[in-house]
Amino acid sequence: MASQTVVNIDIQGKLPKVASGKVRDLYAIDDDKLLFVASDRISAYDVIMDNGIPGKGALLTAMSIYWFNYLPTQVPGLKTHYINNSLPPVLSSLPELKDRSMQVQRLRVIPIESIVRGYITGSGWSEYMKSGTVNGITLPAGLIEGQKLPKPLWTPSTKAELGGKDENISPEKARELIDNAKVAAKVEELSLAIYTAAAARAEETGIVLADTKFEFGLDADDNVVLVDEVLTPDSSRFWPKETWEENLGRAQPSFDKQFLRDWLTGQGLKGKEGVKVPEDVVMKTAEKYREAYEKITGKST
Ligand code: ATP
Ligand code: MG
User: Fold this and answer.
1) What are the b/e assignments for 213-246, b being 16+ CB within 10 Å?
2) Contact in structure between 117 and 125 (CB atoms under 8 Å)
3) Digit-coded pLDDT (tens) for 112-141
């Protein structure tokens, strides 16, 4: 897999750029297809670090592709935007981009982040402590941080513009934003079914899938299609199953950015811009991503 650490992707102007996120850049191949290119950038506490994590973009791409192949075998009728992992001919002079790229169908994105939580943590835990609810849904009293929920919950959020912050919304509000009852019901149903299938798979490999974020789009026939990246450590909370129980009631170690977050907090750099991560933290973080990939897919890198 990619040996160099790539923070800035340079495709030499060969395709028009459609968007650039914290980690990925998106290019238009033609009217129907997009190219997703994952860099080695890493963000923590919503800030991108100055240096990257070697291999990360390729690992995230491979993980997404693993799930795009696996999920339709588990969730009947599931369609995904994934086409293939080859480079379009116009990029044939840049073969080093292949491992970090995937071609997808270009669709109309449904304007919510479709989050599913199987465990209570993060912003869900914060809301629960204040009001006993998560996204306005009342939960039983007495839950502790990190506990498994009685059943997985659909807890959507808004999709903020770049730089903005997504806000948790009630399922009713999400249905309003989607503005089509049939589509909204399908998004909820697919999200819960995908989470359940993925959590079962992850559990077999020693990983707790605490929560995750999906995005969906609509194709020309208004079919609901799974888009974006899926079930990577950037879009999901992966916890080691082994230490889950002993860590109930406090923050769980996560499979990806734990070393980085601990280092940032220890140095008083949490939320600061322009941070260069030292080599040992980079290496340990790279190792965590590799471990998550190898556990979930059963493949070695
Ligand atoms: P970040 O995730 O870094 O906070 P972001 O969401 O803007 O920022 P990305 O996730 O890299 O950045 O951007 C991907 C964008 O592409 C999202 O807006 C997503 O909705 C959109 N997208 C994903 N899949 C498709 C698709 N198949 N067709 C059209 N747009 C898509
Ligand atoms: Mg995103």
Assistant:
1) bbbbbbeeeeebbbbbbbbbbbbbbbbbeeebee
2) no
3) 999 999 999 999 999 999 999 999 999 999
- Judged against a pLDDT cut of 70, whether residue 1 lies above it is answered with no
The predicted-structure confidence for 171-215, as pLDDT tens digits, reads as follows 999 999 999 999 999 999 999 999 999 999 999 999 999 999 999
Cα–Cα dist 268/19, whole Å: 32
Domain 17-107 has CATH 3.40.50.2300: no
> How many whole angstroms separate alpha carbon 286 and alpha carbon 200?
25
Q: Which amino acid is at 278?
A: P
Q: Which structure tokens are listed for 141?
A: 């009293």
Strands, E, within 195-300: which ranges? 207-218, 224-227, 236-240
For atom 2 of ligand 1, the residue with the nearest CA is: 21
Alpha-helix residue ranges (DSSP H) falling in 228-273: 258-266
- Residues 213-238, mean pLDDT to the nearest whole number: 96
Same fold, 17-107 and 109-297: no
Ligand nearest to the CA of 29: 1
- pTM of structure: 0.95
Work out the mean pLDDT of the chain and round it to a whole number.
95
Mutation test of ligand 1: which of 25, 114, 228, 230 has the most ligand atoms closer than 8 Å to its C-beta? 228
ipTM: 0.94
Q: Which two tokens stand for residue 143?
A: 């839950």
CA of 216 to the centre of ligand 1 (A): 10
Percent helix / strand / coil, the chain, rounded to 5: 35, 25, 40
Per-domain boundaries in the chain: 17-107, 109-297
Reference 231, options 285, 160, 296; nearest CA is 296
Ligand 2 centre and the CA of 22: distance in Å? 8
Q: What CATH class has 109-297?
A: alpha beta
| DSSP annotation string for 41-84 | --EETTEE-SS--TTHHHHHHHHHHHHHHHHHHHSTT-EESEEE
